[in-house]
Specification:
The structure is a single chain. Helix content is about 30%, strand content about 30%. A hairpin with a 3-residue loop joins strand 6 and strand 7. Strands 1, 2, 3, 4, 5, 6 and 7 form a seven-stranded mixed beta sheet that branches. It has a single domain, classed as Rossmann fold, CATH 3.40.50. The chain is α/β, with parallel strands linked by helices and about 190 residues long.
């Protein structure tokens, strides 16, 4: 039992250095949609036309509130750049808002489980960060759209936006632009 105590103390110290007891970020980043639903706009739909946007899965490198910087085979995180929520949650909300605004379809949250989910949009957010070799913010989303129980369609979407410098002030807006471009592409695909 005594051998476990130093390990536990070391784990607590390591955890506190990662943010539980450390200095809070001076600024948290988020995604803002280019297109939003109008306030007080009511939409009605049959379950066949409604869509539920499910939080995308992410690789381990994106399972954080940090912005990854890919440089060939190596990975680091952008200094002093922190998301307000995980990239998968931010992107899901952006997708939902964009799909609703561009298509006029009813977009359901997965937590609205008492409703028929209609069509289900799932997928994997493959890239959501800075490609340091090309100096581009890159968002790559592999979408899977289930239309009912018998049909699933998949498609890859990607947007790349040039970045002037590898800093928060340059990368965050470029990622927001790239994410909105991908969301618009997905909305147009889903809207068919």
């Amino acid at each position: 039992m005594k051998a476990k105590l130093p390990f536990l103390a070391l784990a607590i110290l390591a955890t506190s250095a990662c943010g539980l007891g450390g200095k809070a970020p001076d600024l948290l980043l988020t995604l803002t949609p280019d297109q939003v639903l109008p306030v007080a706009a009511a939409t009605t739909s049959s379950p066949e036309n409604a869509i539920t946007v499910v939080r995308p899965s992410v690789p381990q490198a994106l399972a954080t509130t940090r912005i990854p910087v890919m440089n060939g085979q190596s990975l680091a995180y952008l200094k002093e750049a922190f998301w307000a929520d995980s990239p998968d949650q931010l992107f899901r909300r952006l997708l939902s808002e964009t799909i609703g605004a561009r298509t006029g379809r009813v977009v359901l949250d997965p937590l609205q489980f008492s409703f028929n989910p209609g069509n289900r949009l799932t997928g994997q957010l493959q890239a959501f960060g800075l490609d340091a070799q090309r100096m581009e913010a890159v968002v790559t989303y592999d979408a899977a759209l289930a239309r009912g129980a018998e049909q699933v369609t998949t498609r890859r979407f990607e947007a790349r936006v040039p970045v002037a410098a590898a800093d928060r002030a340059s990368v965050a807006p470029a990622l927001n632009t790239a994410a909105n471009q991908v969301a618009a592409q997905v909305a147009d695909w889903v809207g068919r």
